[in-house]
Amino acid sequence: MQKKKEEKGITLVILVVTIMLMTILTTTIAVNTKQHTEAKALTNLQNDLEVLKQRVNVYVASNNNELPILKEYPGSMSHIESIRNPNDNDVYYIIDLRLLSNLTLNYGKGFYDYVDGNTSIDVYVINEKSQQIYYVRGITVSGERYYRV
Prior knowledge:
This protein is an alpha+beta fold. It contains 2 helices and 6 strands, in the order H-E-E-H-E-E-E-E. It has one domain. 38% of the residues lie in helices and 14% in strands. The protein starts with 11 loop residues before the first helix and ends with a strand.
């Protein structure tokens, strides 16, 4: 009787199971990473708005109730209609970030394009009446657009 030769190597079943496990792990990691990134983006916007509100309040108190503004925002603000502060009037101004000291923001860096004479929607604006601050470009989290938090 002849002995059967033992074959060495990976069976097809083991290979398929391994690929399935790797696919499940990769999908789980990708979903968790996306959720974490979106949550971080929303937190960054919230932090920016809180810092801006504090700095604007300090500026207003120190400058005879004047807002730290560059100029009136020339674009349409109709995209924020559903979340507008009820006290808002229809006049929004670009916040002049140069007037607010030691400011580090995650968003709104397009402000410096305005200073250079270009147009940008990557700016923060403030309503003169309600003093509500909005991020014009907004951020998208789970399919929903946020302009303020």
